[in-house]
Amino acid sequence: MTTEPMKEAAEQAAAENEISPLAAELEAVRAELAQLREDSLRDRADLENQRKRLERERDSARKFANERLLADLLPVIDSLEAGLGAAGDNADALREGVELTLRQLLKVGADNGLVEVNPADQPFNPDHHQAMSMVDSPDHAPGHVVQVYQKGWLLNDRLLRPALVVVSRTE
């Protein structure tokens, strides 16, 4: 009977020796899993912070996209105000001031990619012109612009507003 408890103790010690490495490996796997979860949470938080930062930057860019253009227009506003203040009853001075201000405004527009479309006596171009009517005109070639109601505008080669025109009829 004494051999039996010894045998059990030996078997128990052998079993514990087998379990001990498995328990250590299990603990290592658990620690690695905890580290991976922590890394995943950190990466998710970083991505969320980056998304929020990009959204703020996009909103700011949209909000201040016209800042340069509007800053360039401030002297034009100043010129209009000064011209109206100085003109009084003098129509010639008022006209001169308005013409000067228009030149300033057109320069600011051109500096920012704005180009006038004034197609008088040119062939009708449906990409840049909108025909309001057609007329018989012996002075103009068929399909040419006879009259411009309203000039069109391009912004960096993209149509901003078509020119409103009257076109001569084709024969």
From TrEMBL:
Domain of life from the UniProt record: Bacteria
SUPFAM superfamilies: Coiled-coil domain of nucleotide exchange factor GrpE, Head domain of nucleotide exchange factor GrpE
InterPro entries: GrpE, GrpE_CC, GrpE_head
Coiled coil: 19-67
Gene Ontology BP term (one): protein folding
Keywords, ordered alphabetically: Chaperone, Coiled coil, Cytoplasm, Stress response
Subcellular location: Cytoplasm
Listed GO MF terms: adenyl-nucleotide exchange factor activity; protein homodimerization activity; protein-folding chaperone binding; unfolded protein binding
An example Gene Ontology CC term for this record: cytosol
Function: Participates actively in the response to hyperosmotic and heat shock by preventing the aggregation of stress-denatured proteins, in association with DnaK and GrpE. It is the nucleotide exchange factor for DnaK and may function as a thermosensor. Unfolded proteins bind initially to DnaJ; upon interaction with the DnaJ-bound protein, DnaK hydrolyzes its bound ATP, resulting in the formation of a stable complex. GrpE releases ADP from DnaK; ATP binding to DnaK triggers the release of the substrate protein, thus completing the reaction cycle.
Subunit architecture: Homodimer.
PANTHER family cross-referenced by the UniProt entry: GRPE PROTEIN, GRPE PROTEIN HOMOLOG, MITOCHONDRIAL
NCBIfam families referenced in this protein's UniProt entry, alphabetically: PRK14147.1, PRK14150.1
Similarity annotation: Belongs to the GrpE family.
Name of the protein in question: Protein GrpE
Organism the protein comes from: Lysobacter arseniciresistens ZS79
